[in-house]
Fold each of these.
Amino acid sequence: MKTIIIGTGYVGLVTGTCLAETGLDVVCVDINKEKIEKLNQGIIPIFEPGLEPMVKRNLEKGRLAFSTSIKDNISEIETIFIAVGTPPGEDGSADLSYVLNAAREIGQCMENYLVVITKSTVPIGTSKKVKEAIQNELTKRGAKIDFDVASNPEFLKEGAAVEDFLKPDRIILGTESENARKILNRLYRPFLLNGHPIVYMDIPSAEMTKYAANCMLATKISFMNDLANLCELVGADISSVRKGIGSDPRIGNKFIYAGIGYGGSCFPKDVKALIRTADEIGYSLDLVKAVDIVNSKQKQVLFQKILSHFKGNLRDKVFAMWGLSFKPNTDDLRESPAMTIIAQLLEAGAKVKAYDPVAMTEAQKVVGDTIEYGKDMYDVVIDADGVILATEWAEFRMPNFKLLTRIMKGKVIFDGRNIYDMAEVEEYGFKYYGIGRQMK
C-alpha cells in the first residue's frame, strides 16, 4: 500500500515517517525544494526524539521518499493526506489557504479513486470545502473520478510524537462512506493489532473532536494557573492543592500543574480558532474565551515577581534563563512563555543570558543577538543577578546550588514551573519565587 503526505511540517513528517515504519510506501510532498533536498539526505528541520533515525532508516529501506510533486507520485495510490499548516489569522481564525491549495492540486492531477484525508487541524466544515475544491478541479478537466474525503485529526504531543503515533490512545476517523472506512481500516491495521481503538464518526464530529481535546487540556492548565494566583493571596499552596484534587479519579493528575502559561503550535492557535468558529455563527464560547484570557495574563506573572523583587528597577540587571522552548524535548518556540518573559526583561533594560539544550539555534532566528547564549546551564549564571527557570528540561531538575552560590552575583531563583523544593533552595541562602506557593 502506498500513500502521499502533503506537507512536511511537524504533523506531516511524523505521520509519513511512522506510517513508513509500519511497512507502507510513503511519499512526503512539499513545495520547499531546499527542505526536500535535505530530507532526502536524512536531515530533518525539527527536533523530535526518535524521529531522525527513523527517517534515515526508512529512507534506506526505500519505504520513505520526499518530493516536490504530487503529480509525479499520485498514480497507484488509494490515500492521500493533507497535513499542511493552518496558521492563525489576525482575527484568530485558521488560515485554510494551504489546505485548499492542496485540495485543488489533488483535483488537477488525480487519476483514480482516492480517499483524501485531512490531517491538518481545521475548523468544522473544512472537509466540505476540500471536497468542493477537488470536485471543481475535476469538473474543469471534464473528469469523472470518484473520491471520498475523511477527517483524521492528529493527537501528537511535541517531544513524544513518535511514541504517540505508533502507540496511540485512539485513532479518530471521520468518514462518509463504507468504502473509505474499509481503506482506512487497512491503512491503520498495524495499529489495530496492538489493540489501539479506531473511533469512527461523522466528519464534522471528527473535526470538532480535535479542537475539543486541545481546548479541554488548555482549560485544565488555565484553571490551575488561575487557582495558583488565588492560592498566593489566601495563604494556600497550589502544589498541595494539586495533589489533593489529582488523587480524585474524576479529575486525574494530568495537565494540572501550575506554571507560566501554555504555548506551542496547538493550544494557543486551536483555542482562538474554536472561539472564532463559534463567534461566526453567533455563539459565544465564554469559558474558552476565559481560558485564553487567563493564559495571556499568566505569561506576565513571573515577570511581575521579578519586577517586584528588584523594586521596579531592572536596568542592567543580568538574568540567567534556563529553557527557551515552550516545553521540554522540543525546539519549538511558538507562543513560548520564555520568549514573552525575555521581551519583557529587555524592554525593562535588563540583560539575558540563556541556555536551552536544543532551542538556542531557533532562538537566534527569533531574537538574534539581543540576548547571550551559554554553553551550559552554569555558564549563563556566572555573575547573574537571578535565575529564571522557564522550561522544565530534565537537566535543570537538580542544579548544584552550592556552585550557584559561588558563581552568581545575586541569590534569587524564579521557578516558573514549580520544580524545585522551596526549603532546599532557601537552605542555600536563595530567595525563592514559584507559582501559587507560599513564600517565606
Amino acid sequence: MYKSIVIAAALFNDGETTRAALAKAGGLLDAGGTVTLVHVIDEVPGYVAASIPKTHISARVADVQNQLDSIAAEGKGMTVKTVVREGQPAASILGAAKEANADLIMIASHKPGLSDYFIGSTAARIVRHAPISVLVTR
C-alpha cells in the first residue's frame, strides 16, 4: 500500500507506542518499502541553553538515537531508518516526511483534554498541514 512511511517516534513510554506503530506499519508497507522513525527533541530557549552544558545536549541526542536504533532493529523484514531532529515537532516531522518522500505519516495521539479536544496538538498540526495521508493512532 505504501512505499515510504514516516513514524513520529514517541519515547516517553519506553517506546511502546512507537513499537506498536512499527508493527502496524509492517502490514501497510509495500515490499521493498522503507519506514523512517523520526524523533524530535524540542528546542531549548536560548536563555536556558546557555546554562546547559553542550555535553548534556549531545548525550541526550545520542541516547535518543540509541533508543530509536533499538526499536528499528525490531522491524524484522523491513528497511527501517532513524532520524533525530531538534526543533518544533510538527514542522520537523513534516520536513522529515518530505525528505523521505513519504506517502504516509503515522503519529500517536494522547487522550484529549479541553485544550486539544480531538487529538493532540502536534498530531493536529500534522493532520492540518500534511500533503499526504496521516494515520493517527491511540
Amino acid sequence: MNILFIVNDAPYGTEKAYNAFRMAMALQKEHAENVQLSIFLMADAVTCALPNQVTPQGYYNIERMVKAVISKGASVKACGSCSDARGIREIPLIEGVEISTMSQLCQWTVEADKVLTF
C-alpha cells in the first residue's frame, strides 16, 4: 500500500510534524512489508529538512525522525516554492531529502492508496 503524508507545520511549536513522523515510523516498524511511504513537506514543514537541529535532552528531534524514515525506505521531498519563500533552497538539507515540485506532489497523490495530512 502506498501512503502519502503531507506535512504543513513547522518541526517545533506544534506537534503535527512530530506526530506525522511518529506515525510514519510506526507504520514502517509494524507494517514494513505492506507499506511504501512518501512524505511531502510543505509550507513551514520544509524546515523539518534542515540539518543540525539541536533540541533539549528528552525532547523529540525531527531531524533524527526524518533520517530514521529515510533509512527504512521512505521518500521525503520538500516543496521547492515553499523552500524558496523561506530562503532555504540553497541550504544543504538532511541527506536523502530532495527539493521537489507541485507536479511531483500531484503524481504521488494519484499513486497513493491513502493520503494523510498533518
